[in-house]
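Q: Hi! First time doing this. I have a protein sequence and I read that you can turn it into a structure. Is that right? Here it is:
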Amino acid sequence: MHDPKQLPYLINLLDDESEIVNEYVFKELASFGITLENELAKQRIVLSSPQRDVLQKQLGEYNRSWLKEQWLSWSEMQEDKKKLESVMQLLAEFQLGRDYPLKLESLLDVLAEEYKKSFSFNDPIVLAHFLFSKKELKGTEEDYYNPLNSNLVYVIEKQRGIPLSLACVYILVAYRLGVSVEGCNFPGHFLAIASTEHNKFLVDCFNGGRLVTGDDFLVFQNAAPMAFDTVMQLQCDATTMIARSLRNLAGAYQQAGDEENAMCMIDLLETIMPDEFKNDEEDDE
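A: Yes, that's right. Below is the predicted 3D structure, encoded as structure tokens:
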């Protein structure tokens, strides 16, 4: 865990010439995550222009190197949902810092436990109502292209997200409850496929967890409506969802003018998907 009392000393070591010292300094600074700026202000630490330049450049490089080193740790996992959760935790730590107090596993566990306290049976449609109405997880209308909207920790904490991130929360809470919910890789607007013993439903997590009808496809795709059965065939696995999330992040970082992080997401995408898939039409979720 980072120690705020050490922050002034770490800042003073930003221009140290020792590689060993540099590695230690940026490892410690990286642990502050998104709280670093607030902590600097709280302690009234004013960075010089050279110090800020070094901090932004080196800290960014350190975080990207860390993510790439950890990246394929999920690939050997057997369970599909575990792969998805592992990657989403990695991306959360990359964006928020490794010592950020909220962890994805715990947040998902809490949601699952709250559901079980409220309902005596596990049903995917009831769960959608619980998450997107009772817990008020919603699609974000403002700041849609903020890279943090792909971060499940941030999404649960702020109760706002994009279609894919909200669907991931739904899928991973359902997994804890033994409920069947999968991803639906619909172009332009990610959906979820909820299954009961006798039926399958399409769920729009971005718009209140409502059930999707054939007429909605025209709105989502801005093209000829797609047959319901055809859309159901777009059920996808964790690797497809991870790839789509990386594409979303690359686009979001580009929108923010952060080319280094955008390229990092593309580099990660190349490790799991062929180039022709990476270069497909943008998903915009």
